[in-house]
């Protein structure tokens, strides 16, 4: 049934009112294929075609960019600490050991210093070592030097204003968005991917309850209402994460003067970060389940399949 289709890029979307008032989405792909869908969930990233169709504002540049990479040490990295962060005027870098052989690293800088770099991995790596991080400790430079070039990337840090998420059209009929398509945010809280997983659970709960009610997914107003409930549940949560991530990045990176050091070390790390840590323990609710014993839809949260 071609349930999963690879290398299929979305080109345009059309709403179609079908028989008996049921609403479908017609998805036109760049390869000429058209797909008829009872529900369309756009998970197509920061530059989402679905978000544009809904009328959401274009994500804006935060004024910062990030280089990321994965260092490989076949014989073991031998680091004395699992993670370490380095902050100077306009730049922030860190590494974190994933295991005894792999270390994730990043460097964040101001937009005026990096946009002209040719963005091939080898050039990016050289610029980090010889320019942006040249005054950082040798432990950090050693990690960057061992980077697997296939993992080295440069990208501007984009986000959507939180009020655009709160007030914007996050769904229309049987069409909505999730993940970065809905709430692109800077990576300073490490919650971008986590919030996308939250979206999936909440969306799955609302759609799943609808399927339980009808024994199948029925196109029409009920799908639209389920997506509206999903949007209502998510928009305030993700708006707070967008705002928290932006503020976290600003406090941690905006210079190394005495005031910013005080704000960062005495207030942010002691109070704000602990507050956000508690907020990360977010309860998405329980997913409805399908019983494998009798193929009947079941809403017992105690069952796991």
From TrEMBL:
Pfam families linked to this entry: FAD_binding_3
Assigned keywords, A-Z: Monooxygenase, Oxidoreductase
Classification via Gene3D superfamilies: FAD/NAD(P)-binding domain
SUPFAM superfamilies: FAD/NAD(P)-binding domain (SSF51905)
Keyword Transferase: no
Lipid biosynthesis among keywords: no
Any one GO MF annotation of this record: FAD binding
InterPro entries tied to this protein: FAD-bd, FAD/NAD-bd_sf, MOase
Domain FAD-binding per the UniProt entry, residue ranges: 17-240
Domain of life: Eukaryota
The family this protein is said to belong to: Belongs to the 3-hydroxybenzoate 6-hydroxylase family.
Name listed for the protein in its UniProt record: FAD-binding domain-containing protein
Organism of derivation: Quercus rubra (Northern red oak)
């Amino acid at each position: 049934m071609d349930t999963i289709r690879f290398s299929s890029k979305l080109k345009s979307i059309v709403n179609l009112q079908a028989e008996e008032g049921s609403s479908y989405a017609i998805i036109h792909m760049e390869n000429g294929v058209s797909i008829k869908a009872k529900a369309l969930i756009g998970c197509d990233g920061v530059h989402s075609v679905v978000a544009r169709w809904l009328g959401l504002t274009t994500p804006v540049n935060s004024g910062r960019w990030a280089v990321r990479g994965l260092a490989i040490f076949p014989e073991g990295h031998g680091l004395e600490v699992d993670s370490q962060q380095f902050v100077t005027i306009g730049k922030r870098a860190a590494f974190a050991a994933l295991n005894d052989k792999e270390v994730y690293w990043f460097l964040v800088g101001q937009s005026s210093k990096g946009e002209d770099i040719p963005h091939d991995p080898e050039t990016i790596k050289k610029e980090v070592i010889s320019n942006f991080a040249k005054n950082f400790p040798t432990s950090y430079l050693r990690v960057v030097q061992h980077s697997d070039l296939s993992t080295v990337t440069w990208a501007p840090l984009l986000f959507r204003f939180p009020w655009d998420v709160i007030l914007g059209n996050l769904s229309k009929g049987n069409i909505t968005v999730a993940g970065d398509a809905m709430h692109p945010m800077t990576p300073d809280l490490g919650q971008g991917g986590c919030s996308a997983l939250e979206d999936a659970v909440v969306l799955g709960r609302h759609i799943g309850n609808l399927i339980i009610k009808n024994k199948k997914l029925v196109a029409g107003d009920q799908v639209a209402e389920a997506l509206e409930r999903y949007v209502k549940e998510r928009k305030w949560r993700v708006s707070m994460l967008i705002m928290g991530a932006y503020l976290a990045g600003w406090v941690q990176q905006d210079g190394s003067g005495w005031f910013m050091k005080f704000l960062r070390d005495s207030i942010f790390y002691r109070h704000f970060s602990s507050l956000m840590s508690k907020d990360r323990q977010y309860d998405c609710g329980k997913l409805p389940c399908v019983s494998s014993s009798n193929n009947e839809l079941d809403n017992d949260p105690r069952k796991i399949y």
